[in-house]
Amino acid sequence: MHVPDGFLDAPTSVATGAVAAAGVAVALRKAQDELDERTAPLAGLTAAFVFAVQMLNFPVGVGTSGHLMGGALAAVLVGPWTAVLCLSVVLLVQALLFADGGLTALGTNITLIGMTTVVVGWIVTRAVLAVLPRRPACVVPASALGALVSVPVAALVFVLLFAVGGQADLSLGALTATMAGWHVLIGIGEAVITALTVSAVVSVRPDLVHAARPLRAPLRLRRADGSLVDAEPVAASRQARTGRRDTRSLLLGGGVVALLLAGVVSFFASGDPDGLEYVAEDEGFLDTARDHAFGDFALADYGEVGGIPVGLAGILGVLVVVAVGVLLFRAVRGRSSARQHEDAAR
Amino acid sequence: MTTPSLQVSGLAFAYADGHQALFGVDLTVGRGERVALLGPNGAGKTTLVLHLNGILTGGAGSVHVAGLEVRAGDRERLREIRRRVGIVFQDPDDQLFMPTVRDDVAFGPANLGLHGATLDARVEAALAAVGMTEVADRPPHHLSFGQRRRVGVATVLAMEPEVLVLDEPTSNLDPASRRELYDVLDALAVTQLVVTHDLPFALQLCERSVVLSGGMVVADGATADVLADEDLLRAHRLELPYGFDPRSVWR
Amino acid sequence: MSGGLTHRLHRPGDSPVHRLPAHVKVLALLAFVLVVVATPADAFAAFAGYAVLLATAAAMAGVPGTVIARRMVVEVPFVVFALLLPVLAGGPRVDVLGLSLSESGLLAGWNILAKGTLGVVASILLAATTDARSLLVGLARLRVPARLVEIASFMVRYADVVGDDLRRMRIARESRGFAPRHLGHARVVAQGAGALFIRSYERGERVHLAMLSRGYAGSMPLVDATPAARADWLRGTALPAAAVVIAVATWALS
Ligand SMILES: Nc1ncnc2c1ncn2[C@@H]1O[C@H](COP(=O)(O)OP(=O)(O)O)[C@@H](O)[C@H]1O
Ligand SMILES: [Mg+2]
């Protein structure tokens, strides 16, 4: 999804360039807090890692494949600010050394891939973590959800940019529906690979997973009678509590915004009478395309499927996403507790 | 008596996870001496090396480099210590992190404040000392493993250190590269501490050997004598190559 | 989408284009592409003119057309999009070969195709004539924040190392009979990716130690970079300047 030159008009390209520059500048400052003076080598190696795993392809259907974007993955592994830097550097190097993604579109690409996927992936991950038990293994389903949501959201931001700076008389509703539907599929691949990768890291070096850091087991004290009690570090405990409240409100706010967005966007998506459906009926073209690409996804065209009102379809989508996350969590928890039993039995 | 290049006394250290790696190490390396530091995997050799220039600190005991004590937190002092102790790490891909060989060799002296012609001269001299002048403008990734090892030595030589410390310099080298590395090191006048479990290499290069095992020095003497002590070697998982007899080597 | 660093585009050479300082080239490329992007889609003659400019530059740099053509695959997804636009877009329609196509869609598709292609070819020329290190120095000279250039420099240095790690893991998997066929196999691949991250991160930590050992105190020493001579700037601006002339000329003549 590297946007080439000329896809968006010059003013939009310049504007996204400014947004990207501002975002990277903030990330540069904040990344110091995440990595201190080790920023350059660690972010550099992480960028090399992201660059390498972006070559991982996965099937999306109809014989096509998506490739990992890695925004949510990087955010979960090294923290959002460092991740923004890593992804931006990857995009910069790809544009300059590999002619991949236009130079005038670099700002757009950084905004979409370097910032949107990272920020959305991170916020969703944190929000999910706030409702799950405080254990490192919970990072796995949380990151899956973060990755899953990050990709279609980036696609929607792309549609937004196209609406502003795209130079085609295209029904935005159709574009939104197509992009969102398609990128939900890509998002599933992204989610699977992200979650499995995070799970592989968490099981070996949980300390390296940035998102899992606050979830580490507290230090314990052994009492005279041999019982263990949690040590309560004075300064940290207050911080932890406020941190917890912050994530709660973040979660609440995020959830409301997500539902609102889903409702509004999907309403907007089918609000245009001569949108995708019109062309599809007229040409008999997209019907087949849609059948292949979206398979049996009931909500794929965000329309009036089975009489479900429009906005509701989007809200349902968010709920489905949450449900998938909970199921994933159950599965992982089952597996890890089974492993604990095995270990105990040994 | 001149101040020794390295003086380690009573050094003990535990990693953050509680694992104790050093249990009171005493080691003195005189100026101009070449000492082999032998020991099995996990003996604490790398841990000791990381104390020599203050990368690891905070345990018990002390380290002096040419009379100057390594103290954590004293940035100026650490800078000076790191100029005096040059460490060549085991994996040249960790050691060589800049886009080209020349940049990499220049990294250390540039951090010391050198620039312009002085810096260039340092770089040239260091590359010449290891015979790698002709690869100066290539990316490290394009060099052979043996070449990368030698460039790694050059990156440290460019800082004109008081002591050269090499962590397992012969690992992964083919026999020819190993011999070339020997030629390079043998020609250097600087004090050397060579960490290795390549016993013939130690015998070839160093008069004296120190055996580190379980975080303690368990033997210290002439390399030929240390390698001739079969019980000592066996007790500390050190093995000579099949058919190699240290007493029969002509020095 | 992006090939490994094994697909490096750089072709060493000693042409006038190769010799231009990297930051001059980057600015020239940026200016050129901006002119291209700002050109109205129906200024067909202007696009032809830009193409001639690029062909001239490629000839001067000695970059063969095949190299350029091969790398242009990165554009493919957007070419597909551009080809669909005439079908999907609204507005008045024209009949082309029995298909009812949208007029504005045709123009929009052409717009994306022409500008995207010119942009890609120009970028390929930059990548083919500039080695990674000069590019990093160029970025530093363009006042890209030092920390960002440092990160890019580590990325460029270690992309091959990490890529090799990845390749070795894949070979190890495949020599034991593993062939990924469906998403279910993602677990194995992702476990490799997890291991790869740990390796990369730990290498980052070791690299940091190696840097500390050579006196690193939080900022990289400045890589020397002699400022570009005025002649270089003049040569560098030739391409965007010619593009501006073409743009103005077609606008004046229309
Ligand atoms: N970063 C670390 N954290 C915890 N333990 C470590 C770390 N590095 C090394 N160790 C442990 O310290 C001991 C000594 O390691 P090291 O000095 O690397 O040995 P050597 O170089 O002699 O093979 C080993 O048991 C090793 O597992
Ligand atoms: Mg070691």
From TrEMBL, chain A:
Pfam families: CbiM, PDGLE. InterPro entries: CbiM/NikMN (IPR002751), PDGLE_dom (IPR025937). One of its GO terms (cellular component) is plasma membrane. Residues 248-333 form the PDGLE domain. Its main location: membrane. It comes from the Bacteria. Gene3D superfamilies: 1.10.1760.20. It is found in: Cell membrane. The chain crosses the membrane at residues 7-28, 40-60, 72-98, 110-132, 144-164, 184-204, 250-269, 308-329. One of its GO terms (biological process) is transition metal ion transport. Keywords: Cell membrane, Membrane, Transmembrane, Transmembrane helix, Transport. It is a multi-pass membrane protein. This is Cobalt ABC transporter permease.
Automatic annotation (TrEMBL), chain B:
GO terms for molecular function: ATP binding; ATP hydrolysis activity; ATPase-coupled transmembrane transporter activity. InterPro entries: AAA+_ATPase, ABC_transporter-like_ATP-bd, ABC_transporter-like_CS, ABC_transpr_CbiO/EcfA_su, Co_trans_ATP-bd, ECF_ABC_transporter_ATP-bd, P-loop_NTPase. It is a peripheral membrane protein. GO terms for biological process: cobalt ion transport. Signal peptide: none annotated. Residues 6-239 form the ABC transporter domain. SMART domains: AAA. PANTHER family: ENERGY-COUPLING FACTOR TRANSPORTER ATP-BINDING PROTEIN ECFA1, HEAVY METAL TRANSPORTER. Belongs to the ABC transporter superfamily. This is ABC transporter ATP-binding protein. The lineage of its organism: Bacteria, Bacillati, Actinomycetota, Actinomycetes, Jiangellales.
From TrEMBL, chain C:
GO terms for cellular component: ATP-binding cassette (ABC) transporter complex. Its main location: membrane. Keywords: Cell membrane, Membrane, Transmembrane, Transmembrane helix. Signal peptide: none annotated. GO terms for biological process: cobalt ion transport. It is found in: Cell membrane. The chain crosses the membrane at residues 20-38, 44-65, 72-89, 109-128. The keyword Transmembrane helix applies. It holds the Pfam family CbiQ. It comes from the Bacteria. It is a multi-pass membrane protein. InterPro entries: ABC/ECF_trnsptr_transmembrane, ECF_CbiQ, ECF_transporter_component. This is Cobalt ECF transporter T component CbiQ. The lineage of its organism: Bacteria, Bacillati, Actinomycetota, Actinomycetes, Jiangellales.
